[in-house]
Amino acid sequence: SAVISQKPSRDICQRGTSLTIQCQVDSQVTMMFWYRQQPGQSLTLIATANQGSEATYESGFVIDKFPISRPNLTFSTLTVSNMSPEDSSIYLCSARDFDEKLFFGSGTQLSVL
Amino acid sequence: GDSVTQMEGPVTLSEEAFLTINCTYTATGYPSLFWYVQYPGEGLQLLLKATKADDKGSNKGFEATYRKETTSFHLEKGSVQVSDSAVYFCALSGRNTPLVFGKGTRLSVIA
Description:
Number of strands of chain B: 12
Radius of gyration of chain A: 13 Å
Distance between the termini of chain B: 41 Å
Structural class of chain B: mainly beta
Oligomer: heterodimer
Number of strands of chain A: 11
Number of helices of chain A: 0
Number of helices of chain B: 0
Largest sheet of chain B: 6 strands, mixed
Strand content of chain A: over 45%
Radius of gyration of chain B: 13 Å
Distance between the termini of chain A: 37 Å
Structural class of chain A: mainly beta
Largest sheet of chain A: 7 strands, mixed
Helix content of chain A: under 10%
């Protein structure tokens, strides 16, 4: 089974700054996704990270705020830009392998002051 | 679009009680169905899954059966333990589509 390494595991950031979260999978996967889990809430899909092309964003999420890269089959980044306290959340990377199995990273706990 | 509806929490049970957490779904086609669990302070873990109608997923004493006729995937456990206290998420996924999650149900088991 695939193992997803996500970093940083947590960070405390100042309002107006940006944070890039990295997601590395130890084997090739077909699809990678980014989710947000706000305090006490369920997981909301931000976008599907597409290899070599622009990510596919869900309603309510835009590229200027959450730019995503996926340069190859095993790596993706999510940037949370111009942060505000409302962006305080857990951000999760997820991947699907060629056997259709889904895996999650351990998440990045972000607090914005 | 696809969606998952699960029962509102929190659910509080005494140890050894029977647990049911209801989950129904709306989807086009024939999705796979999942239950994920999130223990306090930990990440999301796959608890069980079913990929086609009438399949039963099971793990750690938990079971759920994929019911196409009622579009349901209810989670059950015959005798809960304090260590089962967690948030449980029902989810679905079609082929080559991301997971769609329910809102989660918090379970508290008291000794």
